[in-house]
């Protein structure tokens, strides 16, 4: 029987004070060694998923480059379908399978614009992307594992409904501060600690001054 959702790993590099980017959007927190570890992980999953702001601010490739291995399918949450044609993801989507996930809120003109790009479009949700429904749709497509690479708003959407299985954080030796700098988890947050998912520390790995923490959801 098909599982109702793929195995979901949340992954990010944070500063010691829990930020994933500065207030100006600088997010280069990982080290070269950590990059190699991350790319090995990327090569083992079926898909990598990010939110629209991460595409806008980082213009990422989301490919496997620092090790040998296959590129996963790239998935972008983009309710209104506003991803730029000039983004690296769209520019390389002929060669690397890419899915843009929109909601029913998308305008006809934005949908028509998206259809011209070599991407698959999935519609899931009324106003913003319904993560539970999306995971179900990805399961139907035989996507068995998804690496969620942020940002903070996207992380919250997975965390608030317990829709993840594992969390891998690279604690980087920086202190960023700033109330408007992006945190690992954005959104409304939980009102009580008891509402938080409970995590078990599965392993730790020191990479010079970076510390990779691997938690599983209990
Ligand atoms: N250090 C790290 O490991 C990483 C850092 N970043 C940083 O995070 C920042 C971006 O984070 P955020 O602003 O929080 O945005 P985000 O990257 O999580 O994107 C959020 C946007 O995605 C779209 N979206 C549609 N449906 C959604 C849904 N159901 N859930 C969530 N998003 C949905 C919406 O337009 C929403 O505003 C950037 O500065 C980036 O550099 C991003 C990834 C990893
Ligand atoms: N693990 C990790 N460490 C960092 O320091 C990061 N900034 C990120 N960010 C994620 O990786 C994306 C960049 O991917 P490419 O190198 O362009 O393939 C970035 O957009 C975030 O999703 N992750």
UniProtKB/TrEMBL annotation:
It catalyses: 2,5-diamino-6-(1-D-ribitylamino)pyrimidin-4(3H)-one 5'-phosphate + NADP(+) = 2,5-diamino-6-(1-D-ribosylamino)pyrimidin-4(3H)-one 5'-phosphate + NADPH + H(+); 2,5-diamino-6-(1-D-ribitylamino)pyrimidin-4(3H)-one 5'-phosphate + NAD(+) = 2,5-diamino-6-(1-D-ribosylamino)pyrimidin-4(3H)-one 5'-phosphate + NADH + H(+). The keyword Oxidoreductase applies. SUPFAM superfamilies: Dihydrofolate reductase-like (SSF53597). This is 2,5-diamino-6-(ribosylamino)-4(3H)-pyrimidinone 5'-phosphate reductase. It comes from Nitrosopumilus zosterae. Gene3D superfamilies: Dihydrofolate Reductase, subunit A. Pathway: Cofactor biosynthesis; riboflavin biosynthesis. Signal peptide: none annotated. Its EC number is 1.1.1.302. InterPro entries: DHFR-like_dom_sf, Rib_reduct_arc, RibD_C, RibDG_C, Riboflavin_Biosynth_HTPR. One of its GO terms (biological process) is riboflavin biosynthetic process. The keyword Oxidoreductase applies. Residues 6-212 form the Bacterial bifunctional deaminase-reductase C-terminal domain. Homodimer. Keywords: NADP, Oxidoreductase, Riboflavin biosynthesis.
């Amino acid at each position: 029987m098909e599982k109702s959702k793929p195995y979901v790993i949340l992954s990010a590099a944070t500063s010691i004070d829990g930020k994933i980017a500065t207030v100006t959007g600088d997010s280069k927190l990982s080290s070269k060694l950590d990059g190699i570890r991350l790319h090995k992980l990327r090569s083992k999953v079926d898909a990598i998923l990010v939110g629209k702001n991460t595409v806008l601010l980082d213009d990422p490739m989301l490919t496997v480059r620092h090790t040998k291995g296959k590129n996963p399918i790239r998935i972008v949450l983009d309710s209104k379908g506003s991803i730029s044609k000039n983004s690296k993801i769209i520019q390389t989507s002929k060669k690397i399978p890419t899915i843009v996930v929109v909601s029913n809120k998308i305008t006809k003109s934005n949908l028509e614009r998206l259809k011209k790009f070599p991407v698959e479009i999935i519609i899931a949700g009324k106003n913003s992307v319904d993560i539970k429904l999306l995971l179900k749709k990805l399961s139907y497509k035989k996507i068995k594992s998804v690496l969620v690479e942020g940002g903070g708003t996207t992380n919250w959407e997975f965390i608030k409904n317990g829709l993840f299985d594992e969390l891998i954080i690279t604690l980087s030796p920086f202190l960023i501060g700033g109330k408007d700098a992006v945190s690992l988890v954005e959104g409304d947050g939980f009102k009580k600690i008891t509402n938080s998912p409970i995590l078990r520390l599965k392993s730790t790995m020191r990479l010079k001054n970076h510390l990779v923490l691997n938690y599983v959801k209990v």
